[in-house]
């Protein structure tokens, strides 16, 4: 399975407008509790944290726990104050990091 993050950010927004940001990652989110057909425990490997920043300033920082389903999807709002870039990061058990960026142009 490809772990390819997807993000959806409007290309433009009016200054002061609240914009909807969407983020999804294809990931099985193995909890370490399941057993395979041979009865062996499937090792834990899940996304445990998600962050989004705008020009270095924190927008959201979320910790994920065992109750999060496969292919986690998030939708949240940010206020458009200036033109810049959103930086999305997903952190996986074992040190894997997946990143995407998306630009937003603020029009007066």
What would you call the shape?
elongated
Label the structural class: mainly beta
Number of helices: 0
Poorly predicted regions are none
CATH architecture of the domain at 1-20 and 47-71 and 83-108: Sandwich
Mean pLDDT: 94
| Strand order, largest beta sheet | 2-8-7-4-5
CATH class of the domain at 1-20 and 47-71 and 83-108: Mainly Beta
Helix percentage range: under 10%
The H-level CATH homologous superfamily of the domain at 1-20 and 47-71 and 83-108, spelled out, is Immunoglobulins
Strand content: over 45%
Secondary-structure element pattern, one letter each: EEEEEEEE
Q: Sheet bearing the most strands, described?
A: 5 strands, mixed
The name CATH uses for the topology of the domain at 1-20 and 47-71 and 83-108 is: Immunoglobulin-like
C-alpha termini separation: 43 Å
Computed Rg? 16 Å
DSSP E strands, number: 8
Structural summary, described in words:
The protein is mainly β. It has a domain at 1-20 and 47-71 and 83-108: Sandwich (Immunoglobulin-like). Helices cover 0% and strands 53% of the residues. The strands form two sheets. Strands 2-8-7-4-5 form a five-stranded mixed sheet, with no helix packed on it. Strands 1-3-6 form a three-stranded antiparallel sheet, with no helix packed on it. β4 and β5 (57-63) form a beta hairpin. The radius of gyration is 16 Å and the shape is elongated. The relative contact order is 0.33.
């Amino acid at each position: 399975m490809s772990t390819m993050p997807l993000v959806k950010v409007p290309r433009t927004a009016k200054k002061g407008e609240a914009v909807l940001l969407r983020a999804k990652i294809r990931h099985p989110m193995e909890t370490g509790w399941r057993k395979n057909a041979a009865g062996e425990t499937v090792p834990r490997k899940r996304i445990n944290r998600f962050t989004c920043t705008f020009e270095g300033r924190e927008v959201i920082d979320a910790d994920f726990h065992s109750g999060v389903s496969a292919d986690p999807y998030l939708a949240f709002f940010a206020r458009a104050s200036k033109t810049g870039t959103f930086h999305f990061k997903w952190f996986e058990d074992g040190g894997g990091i997946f990143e995407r960026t998306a630009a937003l142009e603020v029009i007066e």
